[in-house]
TrEMBL record:
The chain crosses the membrane at residues 21-39, 45-63, 84-108, 128-147, 159-179, 185-204, 224-241, 270-289, 310-328, 356-375, 395-414, 420-436, 522-544. It is found in: Membrane. One of its GO terms (cellular component) is membrane. It comes from Sulfurimonas lithotrophica. It is a multi-pass membrane protein. Pfam families: PHO4. This is Phosphate transporter.
């Protein structure tokens, strides 16, 4: 028997190691292909070896984004079983790549959100190239480590920490814009809190209007179209503001060709325009969902599981749209240092903004898809199943929080992280469940134990009263002494029983739907992302500088 068990474990280990080697081999093949392409494509440019190595690091960074950051968009949908892991990976890979290539920014600030003052480099391109290379590699290494630890962290914060650390190493602490860093630090609190509150609010609203109702089918028929329409409104607004900036002028041209449509030409959509487009789509979605539910509610059962199925299709759309917007909005920022290095090498100077060549954007898009497919499942499972138990309604609430929080924050000028928002939403729905404590069986146990404790307390009082009256007697009989002995024993047993009952009640009252160890690990990873990436980047800068000099 032991030999069979050992044989099974050995076969399992060999299979796992073979899979790991295949993944590593595929990742290395992609990185070498990018290195070769970049080197051959920039053959006539001096310092083209720097650019080729930077492209290699950029490919590594892109794969780490796919392995870590993208999980937040599809994790809740997978955890709720609205889609399979394979389906989620395919949808996320396709839409992330599409968002990066179709709607990715044409121009990106090479120094994310003005973290450092590039004038401190004095126009000297070599230290600048070394700093950007160190920042890119440090961010990628930190993301790799976080993924291995199953901790979802912010790609933006990783690259910000990398740029800050390399900048300090190159030109001292005065190079850093500490006001901007303060805002980024504020986002560690703002993002998860806003995401958690909005996700919990939507979950509570769905429960009050549908789940807690006696006739859940009628309630769903009335309210599900409203919630899905709100989701459509939020996502179209979010996508318009965050995902269509690059192609907005082309969209305006097409729309203005339609009869009775006149939109003022602008470089990017305004908040009002995004809201109006979202409202138009929401009306159509409301009508469509209401019509579909009026035909199909007859087959629904009057329970929560049946209501959950109504949110499956909206969740699939949410995962796709979140992935598209992430690809369009965040990928360019993450590969910004590569774009900066390309600009410095090709043009021989330093610019606060740099155009992103198509091949650089393609490296980001394809790298994300590969990283997600090879190493994304770890973090998808963490976000979807290892923090709190999710169903379709909870996952829907988290998706709503992701879109609405970004919209609100962007209009108020608050710095937020999409990763922190999504994880904050997962925390929010979990903690709301704890607050509501909807587990009827546990409540029933608690009520029974409280009644038992009350009866035991009354019994204890009766024993003590009897003991007191016997102790007061001056002429005790042998029977009285025997009874006193018995009473002491009964009082001791009763106290022990009351103590154990209190422990049961305390344990029952502390039902935890959110795994505290996961919360601690993730928050710790958030707090150390910027300083860890900064220290690592500074060390890498000095290493590169030492090699080059």
């Amino acid at each position: 028997m032991e030999m069979q068990t050992m044989d099974k474990l050995e076969r399992k280990a060999l299979k796992k190691s073979g899979t790991d080697l295949s993944r590593l081999g595929f990742a290395l093949f992609f990185m070498i292909a990018v290195l070769t392409f970049s080197f051959l494509n920039s053959g006539g440019v001096s310092n083209n070896l720097f650019l080729a190595v930077a492209a290699l690091i950029g490919a590594y960074m892109a794969m780490n984004i796919g392995a870590n950051d993208v999980a937040n968009n599809v994790g809740p949908a997978v955890g709720s079983k609205a889609m399979t892991l394979t389906m989620a990976i395919i949808i996320a890979a396709v839409f992330e790549a599409a968002g990066a290539i179709i709607a990715g920014g044409e121009v990106v600030k090479t120094i994310k959100k003005g973290i450092i003052d590039i004038s401190a480099f004095g126009g000297n391109t070599d230290p600048f190239i070394w700093a950007m290379m160190a920042a890119l590699l440090a961010a990628a290494l930190w993301l790799n480590f976080a993924t291995a630890m199953r901790a979802p962290v912010s790609t933006t914060h990783s690259i910000v920490g990398g740029v800050m650390g390399a900048g300090i190493a190159a030109a001292g602490f005065s190079i850093v814009s500490w006001g901007t860093m303060g805002k980024i630090a504020a986002s560690w609190v703002i993002s998860p809190v806003l995401g958690g509150i909005i996700a919990a609010a939507f979950l509570f609203a769905i429960k009050k209007t549908i789940v807690f109702k006696e006739d859940k089918v009628s309630a769903a028929k009335k309210n599900v179209p409203i919630f899905v329409a709100l989701m459509a409104w939020a996502f179209v607004t979010y996508l318009t503001l965050k995902g269509l900036k690059k192609i907005w002028p082309s969209i305006v041209e097409v729309l203005n060709m339609l009869p009775l449509v006149s939109i003022e030409m602008s470089k990017k959509p305004s908040f009002l325009t995004a809201l109006i487009l979202g409202a138009i789509v929401a009306v159509f979605v409301f009508i469509l969902v209401k019509k579909k539910l009026s035909k199909n509610t007859s087959v629904l059962e009057n329970n929560k599981a049946s209501v959950n199925t109504l949110f499956t299709i909206p969740l699939v759309f949410a995962a796709a749209l979140l992935s598209f917007a992430h690809g369009a909005n965040d990928v360019a920022n993450a590969i910004g240092p590569l774009a900066a290095i390309n600009d410095a090498v090709v043009n021989g100077g330093i610019s606060s903004k740099a155009s992103i060549p198509f091949w650089v954007m393609a490296v980001g898009a394809i790298g994300i898809a590969i990283g997600l497919a090879l190493y994304g499942p770890k973090l998808i499972k963490t976000v979807g199943t290892e923090i709190t138990e999710l169903d379709q309604i909870r996952a829907f609430s988290i998706a709503m929080a992701a879109a609405i929080t970004v919209i609100i924050a962007s209009q108020l000028g608050l710095p937020v992280s999409s990763t922190h928002i999504a994880i904050g939403g997962v925390f929010g729905v979990g903690f709301l469940r704890e607050w509501l404590d909807l587990n009827k069986d546990e409540k029933h146990i608690l009520e029974e134990e409280l009644e038992t404790l009350e009866d035991e307390t009354q019994t204890l009082k009766a024993y003590k009263s009897e003991l007191k009256s016997l102790d007061a007697k001056t002429d005790k009989s042998p029977e009285d002494f025997e009874r006193i002995t018995i009473l002491y024993k009964m009082i001791s047993d009763e106290k022990a029983l009351i103590k154990s009952t209190k422990k049961i009640i305390k344990k029952t009252e502390k039902i935890q739907y959110v795994k505290r160890d996961a919360v601690k690990k993730i928050i710790a990873a958030w707090l150390i992302t910027v300083p860890a990436a900064a220290v690592l980047s500074a060390m890498l800068f000095f290493t590169i500088k030492g090699i080059m000099i």
